[in-house]
Amino acid sequence: MTSSNSTGSLRLAVIPGDGIGQEVTAEALKVLDVASPAAVKFEQTRYDLGAERYLATGEVLPDSVLGEIREHDAILLGAVGGKPNDPNLPPGLLERGLLLRLRFELDHYVNLRPSRIFPGVASPLAAPGDVDFVVVREGTEGPYTGNGGALRVGTPHEVATEVSVNTAFGVERVVRDAFARAQRRPRKKLTLVHKTNVLVHAGSVWWRITQAVAQEFPDVTVDYMHIDAAMIFMTTDPARFDVIVTDNLFGDIITDLAAAITGGIGLAASGNVNPDRTAPSMFEPVHGSAPDIAGQQKADPTAAILSVSLLLDHLGYADAAAAVERAVIDDLAAREPGTTRRTSEVGDAIAARVS
Amino acid sequence: MTSSNSTGSLRLAVIPGDGIGQEVTAEALKVLDVASPAAVKFEQTRYDLGAERYLATGEVLPDSVLGEIREHDAILLGAVGGKPNDPNLPPGLLERGLLLRLRFELDHYVNLRPSRIFPGVASPLAAPGDVDFVVVREGTEGPYTGNGGALRVGTPHEVATEVSVNTAFGVERVVRDAFARAQRRPRKKLTLVHKTNVLVHAGSVWWRITQAVAQEFPDVTVDYMHIDAAMIFMTTDPARFDVIVTDNLFGDIITDLAAAITGGIGLAASGNVNPDRTAPSMFEPVHGSAPDIAGQQKADPTAAILSVSLLLDHLGYADAAAAVERAVIDDLAAREPGTTRRTSEVGDAIAARVS
Ligand SMILES: CC(C)[C@H](C(=O)O)[C@@H](O)C(=O)O
Ligand SMILES: CC(C)[C@H](C(=O)O)[C@@H](O)C(=O)O
């Protein structure tokens, strides 16, 4: 594990995954290649994890592979998830066994999802304003822990539970990370999103810890919003947000909405970050594997390419990260409405703009 | 309990509640008065439940009052919730002790929330299309049961849990109700919204029961969408939805988004329906008590008035219900952008249009 480098060799685990994951990852790597500082070499290890491997071997993420991945400096992931209703693929198995397992095992407690409306990009909102916020989604607890179970399955007396687990340890570290990010941004504003009026136990620990950590960041303005109210502000005044911190499930929901209002999930990048650097962080587009358009060169690789920018930034290459982002912004501004380009054409165009 | 009447006397429990709840309820009652069939008399009992009563007496919903309310034919509720950060008002206490307690005790398992873009109403979406759907939100289980708890509260070792409880009994009855509603609508389409790839136990019972009940409604088209994907479609193609069925928390979230994209929570009505009529159903606007604008005649009473339309429909007065809705539609179409009216002026205008 290397935390920040100016020269040298870095080990990158590449997991293209399923569906369009393959295509968008190819373009992301193309851009990584031209954007990396001259003195830095990414040694790539490719892992064929995903639906195909599972269907062929029954393996989702063998412990030995996880152990290997752990030895890398970062992970680039495309998308995970097989064809819907494939009878040989239990629903959610890959998402949980591969994607979520990596997030949990590698302690990706900061799921970082920036949202900006880039110049030239159309929003479905009539008047979105100047949108530039980042969601810090907790990544290792909440309703995603797999706790819960079912009794008398398939009978009229079935009872199924899902348990959201929230620890002071887990909440405090992600809240502190979110405050630190807010402090580094011009507006220095943090919004906690939860549902404290109904989910009182979880809500209480999130609320109290946010208040407590706020003391350490007196220059950051804090407010609170219920998740339902956040839906309204996200569509009527998204420009008000700066840093949002929230739990795993609310973060899942709000970041897809954020992606939608800022031009679609074709543009939404994310980092599954382990800020303590005890394991490699993982970068991936927010979108899924979109099996319906897979292999047709129809997918927009921009989100995967922006994830490369987050990856470079995380590894300490701020200039290279900024160059990728600038190249994307320039490409977006030059896109002609009504024309479509192949996945590889978009990758080529952005790679060509990286300077 | 009376289920459907053409003449006679009906008992209506009125709970204006807190903040703007008082003002919007006054207008709703004004419209109910002119809209009710001549031969029907609503005997109103007013209940001063809410923040003031709690602060004065410590009472939220005494059992004796609940017993009285139970003897009514329907309930009209304004909004519940005190001033934020009132040190004498534990957060969420009124919402849970009054609003949710009524929903649970009176078995309001169908939380009905229609969403339409009425003519003349501006949506924050640039091109929303022809939006007309209804969300059937489960109202008596899921993450709203209050199950869960906390250990070592206030210490670095705190663990807080929230348990979502989902029963075959509870899921099946609301899913069946949603299918029946879909069957009565021209498009006959039902969309299950959940997060089956992560919340596997709860997701599985929702999924299986939806598939099973679908057999009884062969003319209804069924599809499924993850809650995060639903965020995207709700902003990019909301016209695709007809009937959405979902759990209590997802329903809370999606209906505020639905309200936002169809012109705001000033227009969103809801019914907490007990379809078995073993207890009175309750009708209320989706919006909250908005303490910041309370008592200033600034609130839009339209959502409360549309809730009266749902109430009349539930009680069997389809014509009166339609007349209220028509009056609202006419008023909305006649609203002049940029002008504001007092709460009572909106109520007067709509009441005057009821024919
Ligand atoms: C695929 C799924 C498990 C995942 C999640 O729910 O976290 C995805 O929606 C995301 O947001 O990365
Ligand atoms: C006030 C709150 C408890 C309530 C809920 O979460 O159900 C409200 O948001 C609603 O949607 O009616």
UniProtKB/TrEMBL annotation, chains A, B:
The record marks 144, 195 as: Important for catalysis. Substrate binds at residues 103, 113, 137, 228. Binds 1 Mg(2+) or Mn(2+) ion per subunit. Its cofactor is Mg(2+); Mn(2+). It is found in: Cytoplasm. It is an enzyme of class 1 (oxidoreductase). Its EC number is 1.1.1.85. It comes from the Bacteria. Pathway: Amino-acid biosynthesis; L-leucine biosynthesis; L-leucine from 3-methyl-2-oxobutanoate: step 3/4. Homodimer. Catalyzes the oxidation of 3-carboxy-2-hydroxy-4-methylpentanoate (3-isopropylmalate) to 3-carboxy-4-methyl-2-oxopentanoate. The product decarboxylates to 4-methyl-2 oxopentanoate. This is 3-isopropylmalate dehydrogenase. It comes from Nocardioides aquiterrae. The lineage of its organism: Bacteria, Bacillati, Actinomycetota, Actinomycetes, Propionibacteriales.
